Fold this sequence. Notes:
Blueprint: H1 21-34, H2 39-46, H3 50-57, H4 65-74
Helix pairs in contact: 2-3
Amino acid sequence: MKKAKQVKVLNTPNLDNEISLKLIASAIKARRTQLGLDIHTASMLCGVSVVTLSKIEKASNGVRFESVLKVLKAHGIECKIVNWSRF
């Protein structure tokens, strides 16, 4: 039987930065590793393919926004629109 590969835990990126694909990708990957999930297990839990999750974590173009939202939700990362009338 194969020994499970250890997941290297990544630090949480600075979440005060302006939102970008790179920040979302970094946050998702950091959260996945902090949960101790390898990419294969995480993709199953999120309901997306390993290829899709890998593209999301690399901030690649061509990923459906619906897939990103599924991954965010499955990782417990809240994404919301703030009331712009406050600005």
